[in-house]
Amino acid sequence: AAVAAAAAAAASVSILTQCSVDRLPRLRAMAASWTGPLVCALYAGSTDDDHNTVAGVANHNAVVVAAAAEISAFVGAHHPRCSLDLIVVAEEIKAEEAASEWAKYYPINRLRNVALSAAETALVFHLDVDFVPSPGLHDRIVSTAAVRAGNECKGAEGQVET
User: Fold this and answer.
1) Which of 56, 72, 85, 107 suits a disulfide with 50, CB 3.0-4.6 Å?
2) Which residues cross the membrane (predicted)?
3) Which pLDDT score is estimated for 63?
4) Which tens digit of pLDDT belongs to each residue from 54-98?
5) Which among 90, 87, 142, 88 is positioned nearest to 118, based on CA atoms?
């Protein structure tokens, strides 16, 4: 079974994306048209109000986990050809860093790297979560990659080293 899974991963392409909780409806739309692996780094950043109390942080975390569970269940039930891997990414912001100008920014590069490290396919396709791929795009990319790989192998067979 592990060999079959590895072969399937090698012959596939993953969409990599990232989003915050408010963009999860766009992830749902993306999953509806994608028939391959989809890796999303979900940012669990919180507002200043969430940091004021332990209860606020706990409530925010519960909302993020519930939203992640809901989207995962929805995709699994309604779009079985899309394999969603959702990674929740939280950042611990230390008190001295909270006042920093950088603490306010969305960590897009970190999220992209988290998604990339979770990809299990040789080919990846970085997309903004607002992009909805055309139906059948996964199969067309896989087919094109297979043809190109076949052409590269054929070209290599005819070459002689000197």
Assistant:
1) 56
2) none
3) 85
4) 677 778 788 888 999 999 999 999 998 999 999 999 876 555 666
5) 87
Contact 40, 86 (CB under 8 A): yes
Name the residue among 39, 9, 25, 42 with its Cα closest to residue 125.
39
From CA 160, how far away is CA 80, in angstroms rounded? 47
The three-point CA angle 151-36-16 to 5° equals 95
- Closest by alpha carbon to 38, among 20, 13, 21, 19? 13
The helix-helix angle for 24-33 and 54-78 (nearest 10°) equals 20
CA distance 67 to 73: 10
Per-residue tokens: 22:
């408010």
DSSP string, 60-75: HHHHHHHHHHHHHHHH
- Domain extents in the chain: 14-152
CA 73 from centroid of its chain's CA atoms: 16
**DSSP-derived pairing of the beta strands 123-126 and 37-43:** unpaired
Q: What is the pTM (predicted TM-score) of this model?
A: 0.77
